[in-house]
Amino acid sequence: MAVAPATPPTVVASTHQRFNMECRKTARGAARACAPLQQQPDPAEKEIIANSELWTIHGKRYNMRDYVHMHPGGQHAILLGQGIDCTVLFETNHPFTERHRKMLAPYLHDELPEPTCVDESFNWKVTPFYDEVKLACIAHFSPRGDETSSEVQRNSKATWAAWLEHGIGLLLLALAFYAWCCDAFLSMLYFPALYFWVGSDLMHNGSHFAMSRKAWINTACSYLGVFHVQHHCWAL
């Protein structure tokens, strides 16, 4: 009887290696097939944010937290409207431009504002008196009639004459304060009067963002009169 030739050891080892590799591939494939699918975030799902962190404008809520540091009017101005229905602030603080409406779209969070947060005391769909007043203000700060919105905004801030007046007032106030520190008797009369005339006026105008288009200048002016009253009382 013929005897089959023995399989060389190297061939047997190679066959076992291929078999083991195929088994490992099969096992890995089965593991991937049985593994639970990773939950992918729904792009339409909104982040849950407390109402106190949002801005409600015309019945819609906006998440402008990333925009605060870019606000042209300064962080203090925009933070006044956070957590409340700031439609009135939004409209009345931007009477000379429409850019503020365009920048809102990317920051829309939802259209489900807190019912207790919505201010329905004014109908913004029909505003004949407000429109008339706004046109009168634009006409006043646009003497040529062809100024851009940026020029109208600049004209609505303190003029050079006003800055000169305030500069002289600050100089007199500094002299009065020095006299008061030196125990000058009459300084008890003219120092408080000058402070009320100069410091309080700057505080009032600065807290209404009326001194300059630069936020830091308005902030500095608003703090000059804080010994009379806190500027936050005039910030709205």
From TrEMBL:
The chain crosses the membrane at residues 185-204. One of its GO terms (molecular function) is heme binding. The keyword Iron applies. Residues 56-113 form the Cytochrome b5 heme-binding domain. Keywords: Heme, Iron, Membrane, Metal-binding, Transmembrane, Transmembrane helix. One of its GO terms (biological process) is lipid metabolic process. Belongs to the cytochrome b5 family. It comes from the Eukaryota. Pfam families: Cyt-b5 (PF00173). This is Cytochrome b5 heme-binding domain-containing protein. GO terms for cellular component: membrane.
